[in-house]
Amino acid sequence: MSFMKKYALKTQFEGMHEITAQIQEAVKESGVQEGFCIVHSNHTTASLLVTSFWDKRGHVDFMEEIDKLIPTRYDYRHQFDTPTDAAGHIKSALGGTTLTLIVTGGKALLGSSQGVLFAEFDGPRDRQFFVKVVAD
Questions:
Q1: Residues 6 or more apart whose Cβ sits within 8 Å of residue 99
Q2: What confidence tens digit (pLDDT) does each residue in 62-80 have?
Q3: pTM
Q4: Nearest-5° angle of CA 17, CA 18, CA 24?
């Protein structure tokens, strides 16, 4: 048995957007009690992350640190739309676009302070992500 749902998301420029509630909603709607939940973003300048959601300042810290590691530069060899687009491709590849979570007891298994965040490295954009729930 499997179930898939598509979600729309309006992002802000270089922002973090918590999507944990939508993921848990999809798991509940699927009726799967034990299995796996696969979350996927089909965008090249965004990533999916599991991290703490308690203090939003941590999200700002994350974006500032990743900007230090991969700064927006005008000398990237490939520039599609903007320099943030080129840097966003690298950030997305490092962060990843697919997460696999364990489903147990009808919920995606996350720690008490963990949440799933959609990290936008360019934007603002109209984005989408997919949640697929599979029984084991």
A1: 38, 39, 40, 48, 50, 116
A2: 999 999 999 988 777 776 6
A3: 0.92
A4: 145
